[in-house]
Amino acid sequence: MDDDAPRPETVDLAAAFESSGVRDLLAELDETMIGLGPVKNRIRETAALLLVDQARRQMGLATETPTLHMSFTGNPGTGKTTVAMKMAGLLHRLGYVRKGHLVTVTRDDLVGQYIGHTAPKTKEVLKKAMGGVLFIDEAYYLYRPENERDYGQEAIEILLQVMENNRDDLVVILAGYADRMDRFFDSNPGFRSRIAHHIEFPDYSDAELLRIAERMLTDQNYVFDPAARQAMADYIPARRAQPHFANARSIRNALDRARLRQANRLFTEAKGPLNATDLSTIAEPDIRASRVFRGGLDVDRRPAADAAE
Question: What is the pTM of this model?
Fold first, then answer.
């Protein structure tokens, strides 16, 4: 806004809310994401903060860009990356980032393997993220004090400098388990001082995970039959009790296996032509065949976070 332009004496926050498109984005968030009530509330609060900040700027009451760097903490599969994408869209609609894109990275994308390798890697990532949001998953792996020859500290120093000097063109979101993020911030106070918003992602309830399972199937033109739906309701707490449970990620993996069993069942049991209902229905045996129902810990050889099933 031109410093010489007349300042408005009043602002209409409701009108700003409507014209910004934020209402539509929040409605989309409610419609597409199950649960996460506390997270959705924090996003609404952030939207309100930014709308008020814009109003204050119009009236000459504020000049500096608010600090928008964030920390997302929670267990795997609780929607952190998806919410980061929604947050990038929100910040773009309100004019706080130029492009509104999301760049997702881990330690391997930032930290090099030898002297002189880390700085160009980190700077290249930051270049791609400028004008949007940089999402660093499992951010605590950047700091490895037990290894004197680790290059993570170099990446950290570059990130801190950019977070401070380019906060009007880049928002950084650090994500990971809550306890590990706390230790990371204790070891790196520069990050803690630059993070203005800490958002905790709760685990989904069993009922929410069942709704998520049904939503995932619907998105792929599948459905549970009634017995399969009950089997999935029984599966969820049994799977939760096992190690490496990853909320919605575990449910997605379970459904992938159920579809595999369904396909095998159709091939081996079908006596004639199949219709669309046959091809699209997950039946009880497709769920009950999971090793989870046979008791005990059942882990295959894959290194993924959700290896048990």
Answer: 0.86
